[in-house]
Every structure is written in C-alpha cells, then in structure tokens.
Amino acid sequence: MGIIMMAPAVLFLCGFLVFPVLSTMVNSLYRDSPLTGREFCGLDNYRRLAGDGQALDTMEFTFIFVMASVSLEMAAGVLIALAINRVVTGRGFFRASVILPWAVPTVVAAIMWKYIFNDQYGIVNYLLHGDSLRMYSAWLARPSTARLAIILADVWKSSSFVALIALAGLQTVPEELMEAARMDGAGPSRRFFRITLPLIRPALLVALLFRVMDAFRVFDLVYVMTQGAPSGKTGVLQFFGYLKMFPEQQYGYGSAVAVVVFLIIAVLSVILVRTLGRRMMTE
Amino acid sequence: MRRLWTVLVLIAVLLFCLGPVLWILSTSLKSPGLVSRRPPSLLPDLYWDSYRMVLQERGFLRSMGNSLLVSSVTTLFTVAIGVLAAYPLSRMSGRWRGPALGLVLAASMFPQVSIAGAVYRMLMSLGLLNTFPGLILPYTGLMLPLAIWMLTSFFRRLPPELEEAAVMDGCGPWTTVWRVFAPVAAPAVLTTAILVFIYAWNEFFFALLIMTNPVMQTVPVAIAKFPGQYRVPWSELSAAAIVAVLPLVAMVLLLQRRIVSGLSSGTTR
Amino acid sequence: MAACVFLSSCGGESRDDGVTRISVLTWRPNSPATWQEAIDRFHERNPDVEVILETGPSSSTQLHDMLSQRLRNRDTSVDVFVMDVVWPPEFAEVGWALPLDGSFPEEERELFFDGCVEAVTWKGSVYGVPFFLDAGVLFCRSDLLEKYGLPVPETWGQLVAAADSVLKGEDDPALYGYSAQMAQYEGLICNMLELTGSAGGSLMEPESPEALRALRFARDSLVHLDGMTPPGILTYREQESLELFASGGAVFHRNWPYAWALCADPEMSQVAGKVVISILPRFPEGESVSALGGWSFGVSAYSAHPDEAFRFISFMTSEEVQRLFAAEVGKPPARRSLYADSLVLAANPHFQEMEAVFENAVPRPGSPLYPQVSNRLQGFLHSAIGESEGSIPAMAEEAGRDIREILDRLEE
Questions:
Q1: Is there a contact between A172 and B241 if contact means CB atoms under 8 Å apart?
Q2: What is the pLDDT of residue C10?
Q3: Which of A102, B241, C30, C333 could bond to A108 as cystine, CB 3.0-4.6 Å?
Q4: CA atoms within 13 A on the CB side of C264
Q5: pLDDT tens, B57-91?
Q6: Which architecture characterizes domain C19-133+293-360 according to CATH?
Q7: What is the value of ipTM here, to two decimals?
Q8: Highest mean pLDDT among A21-35, C139-153, C232-246, C366-380
Q9: Of A215 and B170, which is predicted with more confidence?
Q10: From B82, which residue of chain A is nearest by alpha-carbon distance?
C-alpha cells in the first residue's frame, strides 16, 4: 500500500530529476554542438574543463561566494532571530519584516541591488559620498567590489531564511531552563553558548545544509547583476554551465560543467550530513 | 543598558531587511525627471504614473495571473503528492528511512542547469512548451523533495496510536491519511504549502526557458525582460517589482505566525 | 481544476478555416504600435494569412539563446525570426535558416546596401532579407562646443582634448566627457571594433600594434582618465550610456542612430535641440570606422508554411514598411532608395549625410562559431580596458591564440 502511495512522487522524481540528470551525465561524454554534430569523446570534456582558465576563475568565485555568503547568513540569521525573540510588542510586525526579503523573488532582489549599487543614482554612493559626485564609484565594474555586491545581495535575501529557521528553533528553548541558568548567575553569552546554541543546533544544521546547497546553485543574481563580468571574475558555476550549454551551444561541454556542479554539491552535502547532522535523518 | 542594545540591534535589523525595499518603493514613486537626478533624492515626489503604466500597458496583470495560477496549482499538486509519499516514509523502520530520505534530499539539490536540457526536450515532445502544465509539472518535480522531507519529519512525531485507533475503527490507509493524519498535520502542511508557493512564484530559470510567449510569462520573467530596448525605465521597473512582491507580502503578513510555528515543528528535533 | 488548466494550453496551428497562421519571433519592440500598424497592413492585403507576433527578450544575446535553443530542438512553432547581423553564418551552416536564393534574387539584392546583403550571405547563398541597419555614430553637445569655440572632433585625440576643455570650463561634477557602451557584452565588441579599426587594426588580431594602440587609448584616455568617462562605463550598455547623455551628463556620446529621436524629444531628454550627430573620430593615420549592426528576417527550416512566411518577410522589408519604420522609429532603412525619400528625411534629416557611413560600415567577423568567438573577445576586451595595471600585450596574445583555436576547431 505504501508503495502505491509513494508512486506518484517516485514518478515525478524520476521523470523530472533522475532521468534528466542521467541524460546530462551521458551527454557530458559527447562532443555535441549543432555544427559538428554529436560524437562520443570519452572524458575529453572533463579534461578540457580542468584546463579552462575561465572555468577555474568561476570555480574560485563560486567557492568564495558560498563560504562568504553562507557564513555571513548564519551569523546574521542567528543574530536577527535572537533579537526578534526578545521582542514583546509588535512581534508580528517584526517577524513579517524579517520574512520579507526571503519572499522577494531573486530576480527582483537582483535588479534592486543593481540599482542600489548604481554608479550614478545608487543609494550606496549617495550614503557614502553625498553630493560629491566625483567620489561615486562603480561597484559592479571592478571584480572585488562586484563580488562584494553579489554576496551582499545574497546575504540580504537569505539571512531571513536562516533567521526564520533559527527563530523556529528558539521556540523550543524552555523558558525555565533559561531562568534557572540566570539564577545560577550565568551571563548572556554563557547562556547563549551553553543552553541556546546546543538546543537550536539541529535547526541551524538544517539551515546550513539548505543554504550551502542553494548557494552553490546561485544563478539569478549573477545573471541579472553582472553576467559574470569583468571577464568571468564574478561568474559562478551554474551560470558558466548555462553559458556553455545555451548561448555557446556546446551541449556536451556544458553538460560536463553541470555534472561537476552536481557532484560538488552532492559530495559536500554528504559530508555535511555525515559529520554534523546524522541524527536529523535517523533519530 | 541591555535594553538599549536590544533596541539598537532591532533598528539595525529593520533597516537591513526593509531599507532596500523602501528605496525601491521610493524610486517607484519618482517622476522621470527625479529618477535621473544626480545625486539621487531619498524622497519621491509621489508620481503615480509608473504604477498606472505597469498596470495598464504592459500586460503585467496578465503575468500576475499566470504566476498565481502556476503557483497555486503547483502547490496543490506538490502538497497532495507529498502528503501521500510522506506518510509511508514516516512509518518506515529507521534503517530504511535514513537512506530513503537521503535520496530525497539528494534529489532536491540538482542544479537547474543539469536538468534543463532534458526537461526542455521532454516538454517539447509532449507539446507542453508555453503551456501552464509545461511549467507546473517540472515545478512539482523540483519542489517535491523538500515537501516530502518536511512532511515526513513532521508526520514522524505524530503518535502511532493515532493511526492504530483509525485502523481499529476500520479505516483504510487512504482514509487514515486524509481524514486522520492530514487534519492533525495541518500546520505543517500549510507551512509546506507556503514554501512551495513562494518557490513557484519566484522561480526564474525554467520560466525563462519554457514560457517564451509573452502572453504566458510569469512575473519574474516579465520583470527581467522589462528593461526596454533603449532606456532603463527605473521607476516603472520599481513599480513592477513592488506590485510583484505585494501578494507575497500580504501572505506573509497574514501567515507569519503559522510559518514560524510550522517551521519549528518541521525542522527542529 | 487540473483538467481546466491542462486544456488551456496556448499557441495555435492552422485551424480549419483556410487561414494559415505563421508565428513571427522578434525582440520586444520599443515601438509596438509601429509593428502592429505593419502587421495590420499585411493582414489587409493577405487575408489568408494570420501573423502571430511572439516577442522575446530585447537583448540580442538573450534572443539568440532562446531562438537557438528552440531551433536545435527542431521546434516547428516559429516560422519567421529576426536575425542580428552576426547570426546568419551560424544559422546557415547549422541549417536552421532556409536559403532564399530563389525568392530573393540578385537584382532585388542590389537595391539594398552591400554590407547588409553580405551579412546575410554565407557560402554563396542568402539566408535572410535585410530589415534595417545600424552603424555607430557620434553625438555631440553642440551648445557646449559652441560655448568654448570647439569644432566637432575628427580624431580621438581631439575628442579627449575638447572634452577636457569643456570639463575644465564647466567645472560641473555631474558632467563627463564621453559616454559609450563598455559593459562586457556584444556592444563592447562594436565599440572596440570601431576604435581598433580607426587605428588601422583588426579585432581578429588583437596583438597587432594598431590594435594595441587602440586598446591602450581606450584604457588610459577614456576609461581610466579621471572625469573623461563615468565610473560605471564598464557596466554601461546602450540604455545607461544614453540615459547619461540625455540627462546632460556627457559632452560626447557614441551610439546607434536611434538615439537621435530620443535625444531630440524634450519629454525624454534634457538636451533636446543641443545635439549634433557626426561620424565617429579616427586616429590621425586611420579612417573613421563604424561597426555595422542591424537586423534581417529569416525563415525557419522547420516551418510548415515557408511560402506564407516569405510573403510576410518580403512585405516587412518592402519600401513601404521600411519607410514606416524609418519615419516613425528612426530605424535606418536597409534599402538605398529611401535615403532620398522626403518622408524619411523629414523625420531623420541626418540620414542624408549618414548614408556614406551606412554604406561603409564594417561588419564583425562572420563565423558560424561567432557566439564563442564573441564571448572570448568580450572577456579579453573588458579586462584589457578595465584593469589599469594589466599587461595588454600578454592578454592580447592569449586571446588571439584562443580565438584562432576556436576557429580551427571548425576546420577539423
């Protein structure tokens, strides 16, 4: 009976996830473009990828992006959740404000941040330099600041996801426990590290897992904000794969990139689940 | 002293979360002359024409309707199928459940690029490009893993006595799920539904690839394609962004308590 | 609920009423009313054909992605598409566009500019009919030049010097010298093709001394010279660069001719009546070069109605419709005869002197692998002019090698 009930789910998962991924894996072994036709080439695409300077730049920024944005999001998210949890009046308003960025479509967020960092009309320049137009800088034109802008846009949007989950976790911290600790003379930081953190750890692990996986798949932000410019320095893997597969029509090579993204995410999440969150699966 | 700190942090949090949105709101209410003023002005001159333009001329309302339809049907499908699958999963022995959930989780992390080509070809051979099912079906596939995962972890904490009692009363498994389980699980089901809805409303990659006919476009694509050929209509773009975010803001305002309590039962422990 | 959703699928094949429906894919028009007018006129004269206009993204690259994705999957739902000037070699070689040699004969082709016809020709056959063309031109603030007694610059050096005097005289922090398209995208290639070409070099050989000279000039005298260009120039496409110029933020502006109508419209522009249009500057020992842009119509090889499709194309490229688009939207016609047309010239007085520019505009390299070549070139050009410290010759050598490698791959 259970099998029948799971059948529709299995059907969907196989049809729209498993089968397409397998077909991409097969495609990555072919040299396939409309011009040259399709021929088997073994692991050539992967060898080419290993020597492709632009791919390596892209890989570098993807890792920087994931590490920087996810760690900032975890920190900001927990901080936001702790602050909101203290609020007594207007809780609903605060919660709704915190959820808002997460409900904004990424495309909209990206356009918004592009405008915020605009070199002429952007509010960042205005806040930093006021009326001295000559001081205004083009945040999205230089590799280092463009990278910063993309990371900031992601932190804005996704910190609230972490905050939400942390807030949910905080609901499970019993007030009596905190009271008892306070009686024993434990200070705020001690209470946080000894009581709160261990109790919300499982919730944070879930958030971490989802954020890491999601950050590796970043696409919309880069697509809208920089298109990988300058010269691929702000490119990310999924955007690179898209570039090779659709605009450049190198279907096999693009598939190889897609498979590599997939494998990186798979390995990472296995490691994360194994070392940190085994309990949340089986317990 | 501690109160002061809390207040300061709260103000910072609000500025961080709402600031960018307020800036876009302000831009959406600026007249063309004020938008291109340098240095920019913080306050708008309350020029409403951009909204009128967005709502009247650009077929934007139609995109809103498309998004609403696609997102709600996706949510319906995903939650229904998800509930069906989550129930047996939650009653599996721990030895099997681990790997099964691991597989489900693995499926939820496929990068869109890795499935885009095959999904596109599949939809084309079925004649589903530029149709609502053409977007609803892949969305359901993409969102199912997360839904199953959340629902399973919630169902697992429902006491087995609940269904034992149902079975005693002579209910079959289907009735047990729909009549006994689902009502008790309503908060978790609702949270899952909200997550799926937001995802479907925001999805860009597939919408860009599949809905090429402007009549069928969803909101994110409509916005991304908004920039005219020759000028950047910043105030209209901002107005469109605000309009696109409104339904979600309304939903979040109404349901924020549910979201947090649902998440707390679905993801902790 | 579900059933009604599944039935509401959209897009039409011929129904049984004797009317053939053809689907036309174009970029999102800036002037939907003009398109509608043209299509209405076509329907009036061709009651047996119904045109369904499908609009894609407004960016050429994004439209190319969408169209090529559909054609490689043999999508039959597109009959007619617009082609950017650089697409025909690819579309021809892969077999996506139908050869039109029979229906677009030699004597008809002679009525169009040579550059436009060459752009749709690949290996001796034509694959499209030119719609309109584009060529880079220079817009100048006539009021400022007059105020400081400066002539319209003929060389790049004069442009920088003139901008410099105006900037010094005006002392306005919101005013820059030059506004152009230098984001990493197709338009950067056009801008750099013009600079390189006017130094006597070619983009295909970026390591030549002429090309290096143009690159160094762009980097040191345009992008990184304080006040000459806005800080965001490396993120500017047509829209942003025109926005700046139209709001009075630049002395000189490189763009396509369409910008004339927008600059002259007092509703959109703060510089209406203060702009003159001119040919692009050159280096002292070179000639002024304009990049050839523009669009043509092609028929999909997978179309079920190629005859009706061609009927639509030949209507859209007729004198009548090109006149309409020239007069109403300012698109330079691909047909020579219209440059003596009173209606066209009344709306676009600058077309008369620009005819020579259009005639001599230089195409980008034609190759079926152009998208790959373009991506590589864009990355190189953007780093070369963007990084003030980088070694341009080293980057150029690497880019040149990569480009030749891409082209060699085709030979195999």
A1: no
A2: 40
A3: B241
A4: 14
A5: 667 888 999 999 999 999 999 999 998 888 888 87
A6: 3-Layer(aba) Sandwich (3.40)
A7: 0.85
A8: C139-153
A9: A215
A10: A9
CB contact under 8 A, C379 and A232: yes
Which of C368, C380, C386 faces A35 most closely, judged by CB atoms? C368
In terms of CATH, what superfamily is C137-278? Periplasmic binding protein-like II (3.40.190.10)
Q: Does B9 touch chain A (CB under 8 A)?
A: yes
| Chain B residue with Cα closest to A267 | B106
Which of the other chains make 3 or more beta carbon contacts under 8 angstroms with chain B?
A, C
Q: Identify the residue whose tokens are 């919309």.
A: A220
Asked if residues A154 and A65 have their Cβ atoms less than 8 Å apart, the reply is: yes
Of B9, B18, B102, the CB nearest to A97: B18
Q: What value does the mean pLDDT take over residues C272-287?
A: 93
Look at residue C4 in the predicted model and tell me its pLDDT: 38
Lowest mean per-residue pLDDT among B160-164, C53-57, C145-149, C346-350:
B160-164
Taking an 8 Å cut-off on Cβ atoms, the answer to whether C242 and B231 are in contact is: yes
CB contact under 8 A, C231 and A230: no
- Read off the tokens for B57: 């001329």
Rounded to whole angstroms, how far apart are CA atoms C54 and C67?
Answer: 11
Domain ranges of chain C: 19-133+293-360, 137-278
**Domain edges within chain B:** 59-267
Interface contacts B/C by beta carbons within 8 Å: 83
**Parallel, antiparallel or unpaired: strands A30-33 and A37-40:** antiparallel
Record: fold of B59-267: MetI-like fold (1.10.3720)
**Would you say A144 and A64 are in contact if contact means Cβ atoms under 8 Å apart?**
no
Residue C294: left if φ>0, alpha if ψ -120 to 50, beta else—which one? left
Query: In degrees rounded to 5, what are phi and psi of residue C388?
Result: -70, -15
CB atoms inside a 10 Å sphere around CB C398: 15
**Which chain B residue has its CA at the smallest distance from C247's CA?**
B36
Domains C19-133+293-360 and C137-278 share a fold: yes
Q: How confident is the model at residue C13 (pLDDT cuts 50, 70, 90)?
A: very low
* Chains contacting chain C through 3 or more C-beta pairs under 8 A: A, B
Q: What domains appear along chain A, each with residue ranges and CATH number?
A: 22-282 (1.10.3720.10)
Residue of B nearest to A130 (CA): B39
Question: How far, CA to CA in Å, does A191 sit from each of A181, A184, A185, B10, C290?
Answer: 7, 10, 10, 20, 70
pLDDT band for position C318 (cuts 50, 70, 90): very high
**Residue C399, amino acid:** A
Beta bridge partner(s), residue A273: none
pLDDT at B268 over 50: no
Q: Do C173 and A140 count as a contact with CB atoms less than 8 A apart? A: no
Beta carbons of B124 and C8 less than 8 Å apart = no
Best mutation target among A16, A128, A154 (most B Cβ atoms within 10 Å) is A16
The answer for residues whose C-beta is within 8 angstroms of residue B247's C-beta and 6 or more apart is B64, B68, B201
Mean pLDDT across chain C, nearest whole number? 90
**CA distance linking residue C49 with residue C44, whole number of Å:** 10
Taking the Cβ of residue B131 and every Cβ of chain C, the question of whether any pair is shorter than 8 Å is answered with yes
Is A23 in the C-facing interface, judged by CB distances under 8 Å? no
Residue A220 CA: distances (Å) to CA of A134, A228, A239, B30, B204: 31, 11, 9, 27, 7
Distance from C-alpha of C322 to C-alpha of C334, rounded to nearest angstrom: 8
C383 touches chain A (CB under 8 A): yes
The reply to whether A231 touches chain C by the CB within 8 Å rule is yes
Judging contacts by C-beta atoms under 8 Å, the chain A residues touching residue C368 are 35
Q: Which of A30-39, C58-67, C146-155 has the highest mean pLDDT?
A: C146-155
